[in-house]
Structures are given as structure tokens and as C-alpha cells.
Amino acid sequence: MPSIIQITDLKKQYNPPDGPWAVKDVDLEIEAGEVFSLLGPNGAGKTTTISMLSGLLTPSGGTAIIDGHDIAREPLAAKQIIGVVPQEIALYPRLSARQNLRFFGQLYGLGGAELNRAIDEVLEFIDLKDRANEQVEKYSGGMKRRVNIGVGLLHRPKIVFMDEPTVGIDPQSRRRILDAVVQLKNEYKMTVIYTTHYMEEAQELSDRVGIIDHGEIIAKGSTGELIQLVGEKDTLRLRVGEQEIAPAVLEAFKQIEGVTDVTRADGDITVTATRGRRALPELIMAANHAGVDILSVAVHEPDLEAVFLHLTGRALRE
Ligand SMILES: Nc1ncnc2c1ncn2[C@@H]1O[C@H](COP(=O)(O)OP(=O)(O)OP(=O)(O)O)[C@@H](O)[C@H]1O
Ligand SMILES: [Mg+2]
Questions:
Q1: Which pLDDT value is given to residue 227?
Q2: Where in the chain are the domains?
Q3: Which of the listed CATH numbers 3.40.630.30, 3.40.50.880, 3.30.70.980, 3.50.50.60 matches domain 232-301?
């Protein structure tokens, strides 16, 4: 597939010359028609990257070409092609969903029958036709999120950027939004760049994932390819809570056959091992021997969480 976005050495320093580098030399190719997720923890640089690509923030260096248009030299042409769903809900609370869509549609230069048609189509898509004339401030968080998404789709963009669109909403609304992303790809043939810190969402939705941490893309590929990075290993999570664990204990765990990595984070001791279930009895014996109280044990097949832990030594979860 041809790439629709080419990003080369994109970077951003806030408050130069001494401010933080929020994005460092990002190189990415996004393919037409794919869902690409940027997966990373708080402060990783996801929003900064999206803001640069959507023309809201001037890069400190590097280039991005969106469907043939350089964002620095042809910002208007690039903006026509993209839709943006910002992380923070940007709606007028006193206006209805329909009035919000009308207002933002006009900003995009839509009007007349074309705008009316676009509004109806979007209301249908976000499933808010019934309540389109109520003030947005009376909506639930999930409904507001859906209007926020609708605004980004009004002008039928080829590419849509969605910045953490499921944070802080109920599971049902979340499900709807995830289904909408799939629909945008499959039915509307859009390219979707989706940011999240939820590993499960990235894994479920994406053709490819870029893992971002401290402003750098530390790995990219399909979920399968990324899991290959950590090898065919299992992750054993020994829940130990906040009790003190001596470094010697972790060291002893590392000596057990099959164990390749031991990390202490977020109330867990996380052990990476080949054929993890076989290592389990010995791990538990070693823990008992050291007086470590194990509250529970979980065995996980490799997932993106394991990839992140492997690459950074930290858990992705908050
Ligand atoms: N306007 C700003 N001025 C200075 N620093 C900023 C500004 N905006 C973001 N940063 C810093 O840049 C880094 C990246 O922030 P960014 O908002 O891009 O991360 P993020 O991955 O979107 O995080 P989150 O998951 O919390 O939304 C952080 O260290 C943040 O504190
Ligand atoms: Mg953000």
C-alpha cells in the first residue's frame, strides 16, 4: 500500500531554548486506509505529534507530508484532507449538537444544502439524531465525545486524527467509539491515526502500532511483529502489593531456569520467561523462601503491555 503520510525527523521543543523536547526525531510512514495507533503513557508526546500534523503547532524541525502536501509549505491544502478529534472536548455547551456541528461546519467552509446533508450524515453516524437539538451541556460524557468526533468528520476528511477519544467515558460509549473507528476504516475507507494509552484498544483496532515514550517512537509494527520483539515469552505477574522486596530476591528469580527478565512495578513483580508455567512452581518456592507474600498470580501471553515493559522497564498502565 502507498503511504499517505510521511513524517521525517519531526520534533518539538516547547519554550526554546531551554524548554523540554516533547517530540524527538519522529519518523513514520502511515499507509492509506490503515488504522495506525500511537500508544504511549501520559506525557509521551502523542498530542504534540498530532497537533503538529494537524497544523495547530509549528514543529521545531523535520517535515511531514500529508497526501502530497508539506504541512509547512501548504498548510491549508494539508488541513483540507484531515479531520481532527482533539483530546479535550471542544464544543459550545449552550448550543445543541446540531448547532455545534453547523458552527464548526461553517468554519470548514461548508454551507447551504451541503452542510445540512453533512450534519445529518454525521448525526446518523454518531447515533445522536434523536437528541440533536438538546444543549450539549445536558449530554453525558460519552455523548459529548461523540459530538466531538462528529465535528472532526463533517468535511469528510481522507485522514482522521483521534486523540484519546475514549478516556473517561462509560464502557458502552467506549464500545461505540471503537466500532465507529472500524467503520471509518472499512466503510468510509479513511485512514485513522489513533492515540491511546490503552494497550487493549491499540491491539484491537490497529493495523500497526507505534509505541511512543519520552517523545520517541521506540518500536513500530503490527501487534504480532511487536510481540516478536519480546520473543515467544510469557509474562508472569506476581501480585505482591507494596511490601518491601530485597533486590537479592529479584536476583534469585532471575537465576531460575527459563526466566529472562524480572521487574518490580505497580505492586507486581513481573517475570518474563520462556514456558512461564514451568517456571512458576520454582518462583513461588523462591518467594516463600524469601518470605515474600504473593497475593495472586497471573500468567499472560505476550501483549503490547509486555512489549512496552520490555522496551522501557516500566508499566504502561497508570
Ligand atoms: N504547552 C506546553 N508547554 C510546555 N510543555 C508542554 C506543553 N504541552 C505539553 N508539554 C509537555 O510535552 C510533553 C508531551 O506532552 P503531550 O501532551 O504531547 O503528551 P501526551 O502523550 O499527549 O500525554 P497524555 O496521554 O497525558 O495526553 C510532556 O512532558 C508535557 O508536559
Ligand atoms: Mg495527549
A1: 87
A2: 3-227, 232-301
A3: 3.30.70.980
